């Protein structure tokens, strides 16, 4: 047989070349993503097993202290007697008989209003009264000795004399109201009128305040109504006189509780011989009740206050687990400090301290700073070089 002639080779089809190219591209990308996934898994495993560095914090011991039982409130100073002196009658100021800031006694004349017209009317009425009284006396004598006048005429003269006497008394009272006097002993404020000024009834002329003693009014919640009584001692302080305490006693307790605030009003009387306390001033009031209580206290910075409960991080010393290493992979041995979260029940606060009613024991150590960096069982190191303030009666550094 004669050999078959060679056929010419056909070039690969376009479709076949596209399939081969897609397969090669898929293998390349699959390998690339596989290598990246292996690297990510290894990195995650490294970070998961990497030891966390110890958190630097400050710490303080839970202390046992004696705290007096007190009622604390804020109040307002009020004058025992205090008013804006006014006038009952209208008129023009003819004379001012005081100086602003002057101390006055009850009954001293402060302002004189012009009463010339009223005085002239009084003189006319007094003259008419004098005549009426003379006629009454004459008719009374004629009636009693001679029966020369009728009883009705005598009654008419007596009535006329009484009427005029009443008018004279009324006019004298009107003139007296033109003289404005101090209603009680006290210290005057700054005058609010000038000579020649017309004043109407009720217009303020000057403030008059009695300063010693002085009231302090303050409110307490209804739960405390059984812990206060008239005669109980109180101390008060004001921001304007830092470091000074003024003593007094409770002199009145409001008979009802305010339905809106559920508070009741208490009034105490303070001694103010130097007249340093002034009406209208804001005051802090404290009253000690009962014997001092023994309480456990921690700095307020140690407590995380949350709606679901307050907590602290308690510092404990524990043994290290086998295989623990530092950041460089070196093995660690011995003991370490860890912070463990514990829920507590808190009580009253005083200054920078807060009382712990439940959850801690005296002598335990709690973290006082760096709480946001802590988690349960986190390793910590204690550095008390700079500690947060923890004073029962803190004093500002610029005082």
Cα Rg: 47 Å
The CATH architecture classification of the domain at 55-67 and 293-382 is Beta Barrel
Oligomer: single chain
- Percentage beta strand: 25-35%
What's the SSE pattern?
A: HEEEEEEEEHHEEEEEEEEEEEEEEE
Uncertain stretches of 5 or more adjacent residues: none
Shape: elongated
Put simply, the count of helices is: 3
Question: Can you describe what's shown?
Answer:
There is one protein chain. The protein has 399 residues and is of the alpha+beta class. Among the domains are: 55-67 and 293-382, conserved putative lor/sdh protein from methanococcus maripaludis s2 fold (Beta Barrel); 74-80 and 209-288, Beta Barrel (Elongation Factor Tu (Ef-tu), domain 3), CATH 2.40.30; 115-177, Helix Hairpins (Orthogonal Bundle). Helices cover 24% and strands 34% of the residues. It contains 3 helices and 23 strands. It has helices at residues 14-49, 116-146, 151-177, and strands at residues 55-57, 59-61, 63-67, 70-79, 82-86, 91-96, 103-104, 109-113, 179-181, 186-188, 198-199, 204-209, 214-221, 233-237, 246-253, 263-270, 282-288, 293-299, 310-319, 335-350, 353-358, 365-367, 378-382. Strands 1, 2, 3, 18, 19, 20, 21, 22 and 23 form a 9-stranded mixed beta sheet that branches. Strands 4-13-16-15-14-17 form a 6-stranded antiparallel β-barrel. The longest helix has 36 residues, at 14-49. The mean pLDDT is 82.
